[in-house]
Amino acid sequence: MDTEIRLVKVEQEVDTLKVLVEKNSRITEDLRHTMDRRFSDEHAWAERQFAEIRKEMSINFRWLLGIMLTGFTAILGILGRIGGLY
Fold first, then answer.
1. Contact, 86 vs 80, CB < 8 A?
2. How many Å apart are CA 78 and CA 69, to the nearest integer?
3. What is the DSSP letter of 84?
4. Residue 54 needs a FRET pair 20 to 30 A away by CA distance; which of 29, 62, 69, 85 works?
5. H helix intervals, the chain
6. 3-state secondary structure of 1
7. What is the distance between the alpha carbons of residues 37 and 27, in angstroms, rounded to a whole number?
8. C-alpha–C-alpha distance, residues 68 and 73, integer Å
C-alpha cells in the first residue's frame, strides 16, 4: 500500500514536471521568435544606416577629389607662372 501511494505521488510529480517543461518550452520559443524579429529589425535599420553613410562618403569623396584636383591645378599654374610659361 505504501508503494502505491508513493507511486501515485511520483506520477503526479512527473505530470506536473511535464506541464512545466511544456510551458517553459513554449515560453522559450516565444522569446526566440521575439528576439529573431527584433534582431531582424535591428539588422534592417543598420543596413539602412550603412547605405546612407556609403552614399554620404561617396559624395564627400567626390568633393575631396575635386578640391585636390583644383589645388594641384593651382600649384601647376603658379609654377608655370613662376617658370615663365605664360
1. yes
2. 14
3. T
4. 69
5. 2-83
6. coil
7. 15
8. 8
